[in-house]
């Protein structure tokens, strides 16, 4: 795209750009077009393999906000087929759903034509069942009726919300049976979870016929793709420092790349600039921190409030956010030591803050952290991953990071302190 000289843009052009920003950057909605979907090549390849192989199904799991729903939505757009027809059905689970109600919603989207004495009419498969009457064998039967030219893909999203224990077990049995029957349909179960075992009861019986796809956080290249790709589509550009600051602050969570990218672009546009600068990103950080729509603001206050001037909750939480963590966001107390020592400018062994970590897992502090394991090997993570970038931005605003660390944030290679991604 040609970057035009700003002076040649009319007020109307600037308004149009601002409008376009909101269409391209979607911090609160999944990606629905393939060309706006960044990276994820390994996961896409796995999913396509699953779809192409009869009898295989997939489970996509991981932290909230990493892009599970987006992947499960765009997959239908990138199946490389000319002759066949993709039959894509998606069902979002509610906590009130049962095994039968999930499949009734899916059956509603499977149509067939029949003549019951009134000429040919279209019906839904769901017309054939009472609301609570669907059993695994029914699913196997109904999913076998697709024609040879169809590629049926059935996505069941937010599966973690299911409360009905039975539903989870029955789903595993159904997937097993679908696989044994060699049904053409591919079932993709999607949900928030650290592990497949936590997501689906009885998953052991389906390990051989399912591909378990962990959605990790995005790496820097993918993040860069999210931000730069969109800025370029706007006919704009972003300078290096600004770009790396956005990327490094997001901690691999694409929603923040959208949020910061959006506010930065708007800041540049409001100055009638086509180049996004670091100062625009700083404005974006303020916009995100000050937004009252952001429930993170209240959660942060709950987690860190104190009447004591000497309390260090905010600094300790910041150190947690900066701590080196594993693929699904867990860190150990030991990993908090370095960032906290750096923030407070003194040695802070685990004993210094261990009790505070525990407090962060309690109701009084809004359970901002989640703890796993036994006392010798506790591991922690942010209960809501989005809290992590928020805490870092807040900490920067509160001056917890030295100038060098803040500067390092705007460069591609970060010191250890920041290498969580
Ligand atoms: N591959 C991607 N490229 C660009 N943006 C993405 C990508 N994956 C996710 N996003 C963005 O990240 C945010 C969270 O995505 P979503 O699919 O809803 O995650 P999840 O289902 O894991 O909670 C949304 O703002 C979405 O637009
Ligand atoms: Mg989702």
Task: Explain what you see.
This protein has 421 residues and is of the alpha/beta class. It contains 17 helices and 11 strands. Strands 2-5-6-1-7 form a 5-stranded parallel β-sheet, with helices on both faces. Strands 3-4 form a two-stranded antiparallel ribbon. The radius of gyration is 24 Å and the shape is globular. The protein binds adenosine-5'-diphosphate (ADP) and magnesium ion. Residues 68-69, 157 line the site of magnesium ion.
CATH class group of the largest domain: Alpha Beta
What is the CATH third-level topology name of the largest domain? Rossmann fold
Name the hetero compounds present.
Answer: adenosine-5'-diphosphate, magnesium ion
Task: Indicate the proportion of strand residues.
Answer: 5-15%
Query: How many domains, in number, for the residues?
Result: 3
What is the radius of gyration?
A: 24 Å
Secondary-structure element order, as H and E? HHEHEHEEHEHEHEHEHHEHHHHHEEHH
Output the number of helix runs.
Answer: 17
- Give me the CATH architecture of the largest domain, please: 3-Layer(aba) Sandwich
CATH superfamily of the largest domain: P-loop containing nucleotide triphosphate hydrolases
> What share of the residues lie within helices?
40-55%
Q: Tally of extended strands?
A: 11
Biggest sheet features = 5 strands, parallel
What characteristic shape results from the CA principal axes?
Answer: globular
**What structural category arises from helix and sheet content?**
alpha/beta
Average predicted local confidence, pLDDT: 90
Q: Looking across the biggest beta sheet, what order are the strands in? A: 2-5-6-1-7
Terminal Cα span: 31 Å
Low-confidence stretches: 415-421
């Amino acid at each position: 795209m040609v970057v035009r000289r700003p002076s040649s843009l009319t007020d109307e052009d600037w308004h149009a750009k601002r409008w376009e920003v909101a269409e391209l950057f979607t911090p609160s909605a999944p990606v629905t077009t393939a060309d706006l979907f960044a990276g994820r090549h390994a996961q896409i390849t796995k999913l396509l393999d699953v779809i192409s192989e009869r009898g295989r199904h997939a489970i996509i799991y991981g932290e909230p906000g990493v892009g599970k729903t987006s992947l499960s939505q765009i997959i239908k757009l990138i199946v490389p087929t000319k002759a066949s027809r993709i039959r894509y059905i998606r069902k979002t689970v509610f906590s009130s759903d049962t095994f039968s109600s999930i499949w009734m919603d899916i059956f509603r989207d499977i149509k067939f034509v029949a003549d019951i004495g009134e000429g040919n009419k279209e019906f839904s498969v769901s017309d054939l069942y009472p609301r609570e009457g669907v059993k695994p064998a029914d699913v196997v039967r109904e999913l076998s009726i697709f024609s040879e030219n169809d590629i049926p893909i059935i996505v069941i999203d937010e599966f973690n919300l299911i409360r009905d224990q039975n539903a989870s077990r029955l789903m595993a049995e159904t997937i097993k049976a679908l696989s044994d029957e060699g049904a053409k349909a591919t079932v993709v179960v999607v949900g928030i979870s650290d592990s497949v075992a936590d997501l689906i009861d009885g998953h052991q019986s389906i390990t051989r016929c399912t591909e378990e796809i962990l959605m990790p956080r995005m790496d820097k290249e993918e993040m860069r793709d999210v931000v730069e790709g969109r800025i370029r589509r706007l006919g704009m550009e972003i300078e290096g420092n600004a770009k790396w600051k956005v990327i490094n602050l997001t901690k691999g969570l694409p929603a923040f790349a959208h949020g910061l990218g959006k506010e930065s672009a708007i800041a540049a546009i409001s100055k009638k600039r086509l180049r996004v600068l670091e100062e625009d990103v700083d404005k974006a950080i303020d916009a995100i921190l000050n937004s009252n729509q952001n429930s993170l603001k209240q959660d942060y206050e709950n987690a860190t409030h104190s009447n004591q001037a000497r309390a260090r909750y905010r600094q300790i939480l910041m150190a947690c956010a900066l701590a080196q963590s594993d693929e699904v966001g867990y860190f150990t107390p030991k990993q908090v030591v370095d960032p906290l020592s750096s923030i407070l400018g003194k040695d802070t062994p685990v004993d210094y803050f261990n009790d505070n970590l525990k407090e962060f897992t309690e109701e009084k502090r809004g359970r901002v952290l989640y703890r796993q394991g036994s006392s010798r090997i506790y591991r922690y993570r942010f209960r809501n991953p989005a809290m992590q970038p928020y805490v870092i931005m807040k900490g920067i605003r509160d001056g917890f990071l030295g100038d060098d660390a803040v500067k390092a944030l705007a460069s591609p290679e970060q010191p250890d302190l920041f290498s969580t991604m």
